[in-house]
Amino acid sequence: MRKTIVAVVGLVSFALAGCSGSPADPVTVTVAEEAEPQEDAPAPDDTEPEQSGEPETASSADQEVEQTFEMPSVVGQNLQDAQDLLQTLDSYVMDQVDATGLERFAVNDSNWTVCAQDPAPGAVVPISTVVTLSAVKLDEACP
Which of 112, 76, 87 is closest to 97 using CA atoms? Predict the structure, then answer.
């Protein structure tokens, strides 16, 4: 919805008050919102739709297919490198989990190693799929 904001400011009194050396009168600001006019719904058509004899096809929006990628194997890789690889495949929805169960958060991803992944390597998944990477710090062993 488009909103129009109207502001009325007493600029002349403000400018004059600055020149006279007397304290400025309070400036009044009025804000009004105008809603965009609602379009009237078209009147219902009393006529029957034309029957062409051919089945209806879905619109192009219904036929859009989400892009997919094949999940690579990232277990054993540096967490940052694994994330970079996934992003080259247009996969940007990722979750990082502390594989030790301590619920630590990887602040510097390059200091962590991937121990497990979901989805599994080779799975063909939509780019909107959440990829979960379980990792431990570089000096720790995977559980």
Answer: 112
44-101 pLDDT, tens per residue? 555 555 555 555 555 555 568 899 999 999 999 999 999 999 999 999 999 999 999 9
Side-chain-side CA neighbours of 19 within 13 Å: the count stands at 6
d(CA 121, CA 19): 75
Contact criterion met (CB below 8 Å) for 117 and 134: yes
**Which single residue is written with the structure tokens 């379980």?**
134
- CA-wise closest residue to 114 among 73, 141, 76, 71: 76
Q: What is the pLDDT of residue 100?
A: 97
Model pTM score: 0.57
d(CA 94, CA 74): 13
5 Cβ neighbours under 8 A, 6+ residues apart: 31, 32, 33
Rg, the chain, Cα only? 30
